[in-house]
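C-alpha coordinates in:
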Protein backbone atom coordinates (compact mmCIF):
# COMPACT_ATOMS: atom_id res chain seq x y z
CA UNK A 1 0.00 0.00 0.00
CA UNK A 2 2.87 2.30 0.74
CA UNK A 3 4.20 1.62 -2.74
CA UNK A 4 0.91 2.74 -4.28
CA UNK A 5 0.99 5.89 -2.17
CA UNK A 6 4.56 6.62 -3.21
CA UNK A 7 3.70 6.01 -6.85
CA UNK A 8 0.67 8.22 -6.54
CA UNK A 9 2.75 10.99 -4.93
CA UNK A 10 5.35 10.67 -7.67
CA UNK A 11 2.64 10.80 -10.32
CA UNK A 12 1.19 13.90 -8.70
CA UNK A 13 4.62 15.55 -8.66
CA UNK A 14 5.13 14.69 -12.34
CA UNK A 15 1.69 16.11 -13.18
CA UNK A 16 2.40 19.29 -11.19
CA UNK A 17 5.74 19.67 -12.96
CA UNK A 18 4.03 19.22 -16.34
CA UNK A 19 1.40 21.80 -15.41
CA UNK A 20 4.05 24.29 -14.29
CA UNK A 21 6.00 23.74 -17.48
CA UNK A 22 2.89 24.26 -19.62
CA UNK A 23 2.11 27.45 -17.69
CA UNK A 24 5.63 28.74 -18.26
CA UNK A 25 5.30 27.84 -21.96
CA UNK A 26 1.97 29.69 -22.09
CA UNK A 27 3.59 32.72 -20.48
CA UNK A 28 6.52 32.63 -22.92
CA UNK A 29 4.11 32.21 -25.84
CA UNK A 30 2.09 35.17 -24.58
CA UNK A 31 5.22 37.29 -24.34
CA UNK A 32 6.12 36.27 -27.91
CA UNK A 33 2.64 37.22 -29.07
CA UNK A 34 2.98 40.57 -27.31
CA UNK A 35 6.37 41.15 -28.94
CA UNK A 36 4.95 40.22 -32.34
CA UNK A 37 2.03 42.63 -31.90
CA UNK A 38 4.43 45.41 -30.93
CA UNK A 39 6.53 44.72 -34.02
CA UNK A 40 3.44 44.74 -36.24
CA UNK A 41 2.44 48.13 -34.84
CA UNK A 42 5.93 49.47 -35.56
CA UNK A 43 5.75 48.13 -39.11
CA UNK A 44 2.37 49.80 -39.69
CA UNK A 45 3.72 53.08 -38.34
CA UNK A 46 6.77 52.86 -40.60
CA UNK A 47 4.54 52.09 -43.59
CA UNK A 48 2.51 55.22 -42.86
CA UNK A 49 5.68 57.29 -42.58
CA UNK A 50 7.02 55.85 -45.84
CA UNK A 51 3.76 56.66 -47.63
CA UNK A 52 3.90 60.20 -46.28
CA UNK A 53 7.44 60.61 -47.60
CA UNK A 54 6.40 59.19 -50.97
CA UNK A 55 3.53 61.67 -51.17
CA UNK A 56 5.80 64.56 -50.22
CA UNK A 57 8.41 63.63 -52.83
CA UNK A 58 5.86 63.04 -55.59
CA UNK A 59 4.19 66.37 -54.91
CA UNK A 60 7.52 68.21 -54.84
CA UNK A 61 8.49 66.66 -58.19
CA UNK A 62 5.27 67.93 -59.77
CA UNK A 63 5.35 71.32 -58.03
CA UNK A 64 2.17 70.59 -56.08
CA UNK A 65 3.45 70.76 -52.50
CA UNK A 66 0.60 72.98 -51.41
CA UNK A 67 -1.85 70.10 -52.04
CA UNK A 68 -0.41 67.89 -49.27
CA UNK A 69 -3.51 68.35 -47.11
CA UNK A 70 -5.69 66.72 -49.76
CA UNK A 71 -3.81 63.46 -49.32
CA UNK A 72 -5.11 63.14 -45.79
CA UNK A 73 -8.52 62.53 -47.34
CA UNK A 74 -7.10 59.90 -49.70
CA UNK A 75 -5.23 58.17 -46.85
CA UNK A 76 -8.35 56.22 -45.88
CA UNK A 77 -8.69 54.81 -49.40
CA UNK A 78 -6.58 52.28 -51.29
CA UNK A 79 -5.28 54.63 -53.97
CA UNK A 80 -1.68 54.75 -55.16
CA UNK A 81 0.37 57.89 -54.73
CA UNK A 82 0.79 58.20 -58.49
CA UNK A 83 -2.99 58.09 -59.01
CA UNK A 84 -3.49 60.77 -56.39
CA UNK A 85 -0.82 63.04 -57.85
CA UNK A 86 -2.21 62.50 -61.33
CA UNK A 87 -5.72 63.42 -60.18
CA UNK A 88 -4.52 66.62 -58.56
CA UNK A 89 -2.31 67.47 -61.52
CA UNK A 90 -5.26 67.11 -63.90
CA UNK A 91 -7.44 69.28 -61.65
CA UNK A 92 -4.80 71.99 -61.46
CA UNK A 93 -4.24 71.85 -65.22
CA UNK A 94 -7.96 72.25 -65.85
CA UNK A 95 -8.11 75.23 -63.50
CA UNK A 96 -5.07 76.85 -65.10
CA UNK A 97 -6.44 76.38 -68.60
CA UNK A 98 -9.78 77.82 -67.57
CA UNK A 99 -8.21 80.91 -66.04
CA UNK A 100 -5.46 81.36 -68.62
CA UNK A 101 -5.35 84.38 -70.91
CA UNK A 102 -7.03 83.72 -74.24
CA UNK A 103 -6.57 86.49 -76.79
CA UNK A 104 -9.50 87.43 -78.99
CA UNK A 105 -7.50 86.63 -82.12
CA UNK A 106 -7.52 82.96 -81.16
CA UNK A 107 -11.31 82.84 -81.44
CA UNK A 108 -11.05 84.09 -85.03
CA UNK A 109 -8.38 81.54 -85.87
CA UNK A 110 -10.64 78.79 -84.55
CA UNK A 111 -13.14 79.53 -87.34
CA UNK A 112 -10.34 79.12 -89.93
CA UNK A 113 -9.16 75.87 -88.33
CA UNK A 114 -12.74 74.58 -88.24
CA UNK A 115 -13.13 75.30 -91.97
CA UNK A 116 -9.85 73.47 -92.71
CA UNK A 117 -10.87 70.50 -90.55
CA UNK A 118 -14.24 70.28 -92.29
CA UNK A 119 -12.56 70.38 -95.71
CA UNK A 120 -14.20 73.72 -96.55
CA UNK A 121 -11.42 75.25 -98.64
CA UNK A 122 -13.69 78.02 -99.91
CA UNK A 123 -14.58 79.05 -96.35
CA UNK A 124 -10.93 78.94 -95.23
CA UNK A 125 -9.80 81.10 -98.17
CA UNK A 126 -12.70 83.46 -97.58
CA UNK A 127 -11.68 83.78 -93.93
CA UNK A 128 -8.06 84.59 -94.83
CA UNK A 129 -9.01 87.05 -97.56
CA UNK A 130 -11.55 88.67 -95.29
CA UNK A 131 -8.86 89.14 -92.67
CA UNK A 132 -6.50 90.48 -95.34
CA UNK A 133 -8.99 93.05 -96.63
CA UNK A 134 -10.16 93.99 -93.15
CA UNK A 135 -13.59 92.34 -93.10
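Residues out:
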Amino acid sequence: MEEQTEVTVEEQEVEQTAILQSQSIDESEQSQVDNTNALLEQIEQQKAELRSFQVDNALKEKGLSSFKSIFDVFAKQEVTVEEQVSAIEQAVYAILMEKAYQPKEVAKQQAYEQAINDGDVKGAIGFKLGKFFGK
